[in-house]
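>> received
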Amino acid sequence: MAFVCLWICCFVLLSCDIGQNFQTKQPQEQLTLVTWNLQALFDGSETGTEYADYRHSKGWTPEKYLERISQIQEALAGWLPQGPDILALEEIENKEILEALNGCFKEKAYPYAVFSKNADAALGIGVLSRYRIIDQRSHFGYRQGGEGQRPILELMLDTGKEPLVVFVCHWKSKKGKDDTERFRRDSAAIIQRRIRELLGTIDNHGLIQSPAAGTVKNKEDTGLKQGYPQENQNRESEAIAGRRDDPSLGAILVVGDLNENYDEFERQGKTRITALLPTTEEAGRLVQLQQRKKERRSSFNLRGGDYPLEGPSLKGPGEAPPFFWPEDVLLLRDSFQISQDETLRGLTFYSPWQESPFAGSYWYKEAWETIDHVLLHSSLGDGKGWEFASFGVAQQAPFVNEEGYPVVYNPRTGTGVSDHLPLLVVLKYVE
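>> returned
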């Protein structure tokens, strides 16, 4: 009853209008996606898992929560009057918040919504979509004696043209005394393995575990409230099965807060393998060196089975490879131009940050970081189907202050928006 009242208040108190009617999208020639870390968006109730500043004893109230929902909606409306076709959100507490945001659009509400998080986690990830979700799943990774990874939400969307596969992520942060790179590489391994499955190069074995995986304890939370479609719960959709023989697969995006810069390898002094690894000779030499030192990591454990690491090269047939493909990184190409004879063309990504005029989406220790991402699979640059058109970052008020830095949300005063700036990617359809 409390939630019903809260939702009614959201309809009454918020004046939300962001343009065209948000009904299921019809086939069109352009598609827009926004990904945004909302900086700890908690609701007005208290369950015990909230951050300290979002407890009632610290002054957090249902009124502040409703006002923040309004601020977020108004910020999006001012940036994109028509609204994005797909809205991927990180750091939201529960599915009720996702529904409250959606409810603010009233008759323009998105018809499809999905939420996922670990059962004991404070925050999760969610998606609002105008396109029908024809397949969804959450991937979890765990290490022996270690903490569970945040889920990776995988969605396949029916765009009316060709399927769009979106991986929504919030990878492990760099905070803490222990080395956190291994956790981000675990997350990268999950995505790489799943893409191999989608490409049909390996069998579908389901949940992917880390090299030293233990018992899975946490469960996903993807329940949808009444009125949200249930047909997207299928384990394997016909759309996926029907494209297994197509090496281009369709359009694939990896979006969200990866807590790693696109040039993290360079920022780390080119001395360690990062979860986002460039296709450079320096990276290749480091990978080869570490492979020699760590032969014991010659297999990747997945549900008790040992699968030998494959070593496809980055060069064409007959050419000497600069290095072998690690099983736990996402490889970033230095250009969006794709050679048709590339061995790994189906397993490489392009980051728009590499040629972007935008400095970053997150301001930390007096420097810009590019930890929020829209990674474009090579299928988005092959000259057919959905193709990359443009990339943008919200750089105007109320997202940024007069100096151009993100306006961090302050739960004590109820002012601000988020410490992350939202990213926008536009795709165009080419026959």
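>> The chain is about 20% helix and 25% strand.
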